[in-house]
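Complex 521.
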Amino acid sequence: MKNKNLEMRFFKIFLILYLALILGNCNSSKEQESGEVLPNIVIIYLDDLGYGDVGAYGSVALKTPNIDKLAKGGVRFTDGYASSATCSPSRYALLTGIYPWRNERAKILSGTAPLLIDTAQMTIPKMLSARGYSTGIVGKWHLGLGDGNVDWNTHVSPGPNEVGFDYSYIMAATQDRVPTVYIENGFVVGRDPDDPIYVNYQENFPGEPTGKDNPELLKMKWHHGHNSSIVNGIPRIGYMKGGEKAKWVDEDMADVFLAKAREYILDHKEDPFFLYYALQQPHVPRTPHERFVGRSGMGPRGDVIVEADWCIGELVSTLDEQGLLENTLIILSSDNGPVLNDGYYDDAVEKLGDHKPWGLLRGGKYSLFQAGTRVPFITYWKSNIEPNTSNALVSQIDIFASIAQLVGSQETAPDSEQLLNVFLGKSQQGREELILEATTRTALRKGDWLMIPPYDGPAVAAQVNIELGNSEEYQLFNLKDDIGEQKNLAESYPDKLKEMIDLYREIRGTSSDKIEQLELK
Ligand code: NG6
Ligand code: CA
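Predicted structure with NG6 bound:
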């Protein structure tokens, strides 16, 4: 009898230990070895939002209360950079931690460009997947799809799902480029075998109207470029035929992406998840939903920023309602600086008033001057980040290594610096130096100094009316004293200039065999 009792007791203890082991294992995907719960990570990425477009960065006329809330409750970086002054290169660097100038294909991509990221390449979503995360992208992709010969009527691959995202709901390129359809996990949403989709960037399909030849069909006029196929009364870049039911309605795009992003959060609230929410605003064509028309008093460009700000508020509310805010690191930034007229007549210039999308900075999108790449950059993590302003030099390229550190991954990326404590507001010790890029031209930021080597090419991009940073001379600015880059100190500080040129050549020279093409004089 005694023996039986003892046996039972052993059996019970064994059972309890066994259950504890199983339950422990269930949690292991959510926890690191230390037992800490892995936080969710949300990157909110805007398209062409300028340094001065946000209330927290000095905008008065244009109001962005929801972004401001993140800035006030988190770390607001004053010296935060996108890797490039255009979209595809910045997005490439964000996801891979590799400078875009190392990859000669990392330029603004067409809607039929092949996938820019090698499927063997380590990326943020791959790194997080390996740590047990669910990974999703909703919004603008613009990193190419397929192998350059895509059939839009079958599985479009490789794409985001092949470089680390378990879930993707994207637009292929930009809102102004065909194909103007959403793609979910590699399949065009609403595709119809009876109305196949064809896309061509070289020539039109016989009989299809274009912005150039059919102005009577347009509800938005093109200013430069953007005169090929017409979708929803808006002329686009590139030609497209078919897929009538699949074509997006531009005015609904913000709501569609927001709904998908929220759905993703609700579906994955039990996992640790990574959500890359890549909003399309305020890139052209600017098409606010009617709820936002007129809200900014600045025309469509201001209205879509108000719309984007609202979407961000809704997304954060969703996290809050689900009790996830204290376990979610949010990083908000923009892929490049601002532009007013980027190819359509949409009153962006005419209704701007006193608003300065570039703030106190010089240049804008496409520019090597500061407004090209210095962008709003905010980290927010309720109860985990002390509200603060940071002047540390940081780049989106550093998100890779910093997140790796956060989640206990050993992965590294060639150009990504581990600045977790800076992103969490615990240190002001940012990067020492950073190479900035604008359409393959590069410059060096080190400390307070910026050196732009001589480049051929126009000083001003006439159509968009933006100073590009090109000059026959070396340009050297002290950004601490001269944030507007007005005073070229190259001649008065020859030693500093030489130091900057040497370092620039060292970074670019040892890492790129393209140094001769830099037009260095
Ligand atoms: C340019 C387009 C511009 C915009 C940009 C990409 C013309 C004349 N201009 O070529 O409108 O689409 O590409 O912007 O076509 S980005 O933010 O995605 O880099
Ligand atoms: Ca952009």
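The chain has two domains: 37-197+242-430, 435-508.
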